[in-house]
Amino acid sequence: MTENHVSGYIKYQAMQLGAEMQVQGACMTGEDTWPNIRTSGERMIRPGDLVFWDPYGLAWNGYQSCNYRVIVPVIKPARKPWMPEEVRELHYAASQRSNPAIRPQI
Fold first, then answer.
1. How do residues 18-31 score in pLDDT, each as one tens digit?
2. Within a domain: residue 44?
3. Phi then psi for 43, rounded to 5 degrees?
4. Which residues lie closer than 8 Å to 92 by C-beta, 6 or more apart?
5. pTM for this model (two decimals)
6. Residue 25 falls within a domain, yes or no?
7. Which residues contact 42 (CB under 8 A, 6 or more apart)?
8. β-bridge partners, 51
9. In which element (H, E) is residue 26 found?
């Protein structure tokens, strides 16, 4: 997926939801996020990239929108999430090493 794909999809969704106008709007990723040049391109969005989207010029019922969204797309981890038992064991082991005088009641 490219920056232009994201920008076009969000503009389409805004119009479907009743936006009155979408003058501009830009999706910037990677090295294009600073300085904020407000332009979308054909750069592929990869996991770990910083994605900045600015919907400037968007209006609903006469109100102008002014918000920004920054996300970082990630790949779903292959490893299972930590279980509470594992967290409890790690916490207990760390507390025993750090200060043996304090014995948490876990």
1. 888 766 778 888 88
2. yes
3. -70, 130
4. 104, 106
5. 0.61
6. yes
7. 2, 3, 4
8. 29, 71
9. strand 26-29
